[in-house]
Amino acid sequence: MDKDSLQEDLDCIAEWSMKNKMELHGEKFEVLNYKLNSTKGLRNLLFTNEFYLYTSSSGDIINPVDFVKDLGVYLANDASWSLHINTITKEAKRLAGWVLGVFKDRSTRTMMTLLKSLVRPKLEYCSPLWSSVKVGDIQRLEDIQRYFTRRIKEFHGMDYWERLWHLKIMSLQRRRERYMI
């Protein structure tokens, strides 16, 4: 069975770490069980809610979690990227607010340098992995760039798409589509 194979792999890793005098912190282990079906009626059935408990080398049970953060990307047990997108848009909006509060120059060159070097990397880190197709997620990401470009003094009164055209930049969604492998 898959669960037995995974437990064997965990035991092999623990054995390897002991041979190499490398201590593993069992309290940091997490298990992410992906939900098989999200409909409420099927979720409560016995066969769809069956999760196995794995143990660390010290015998501690590795508890299942709803999400994990790995290399800065949030993975959720419902296999959606909404949690990750909500988190990065919150961070990017906070960073954009800080940038706009600290830097008073609203010239195109300054604002584009700040957007490209500070704000956009927050929104695009590992985007080929998590690129969402949900309209709400895409909109939340675009809202940050929309908010930031609206503050450029030469482009007051223009809509978002006009600003992008004049700035010669693409929407974040178009950038993600273009750079997908």
In short:
The chain is mainly α and 181 residues long. The protein contains 8 helices and 6 strands. A hairpin with a 5-residue loop joins strand 2 and strand 3.
Structure characterization notes:
The protein is 52% helix and 9% strand. The protein has 8 helices and 6 strands, in the order αβαβββββαααααα. The strands form 3 sheets. Strands 1-4 form a two-stranded parallel sheet. A hairpin with a 5-residue loop joins strand 2 and strand 3.
Major beta sheet, strand line-up:
1-4
Shape: elongated
* Helicity range: 40-55%
Terminal-residue CA separation: 34 Å
Radius of gyration: 22 Å
Following the backbone from N to C, one meets helices and strands in this order, namely HEHEEEEEHHHHHH
Structural topology:
Elements: H1 2-19, E1 31-32, H2 40-43, E2 54-55, E3 61-62, E4 64-65, E5 67-70, E6 73-76, H3 82-102, H4 108-124, H5 127-130, H6 135-149, H7 160-167, H8 172-178
Parallel strand pairs: 1-4
Antiparallel strand pairs: 2-3, 5-6
Helix pairs in contact: 3-4, 3-6, 4-6
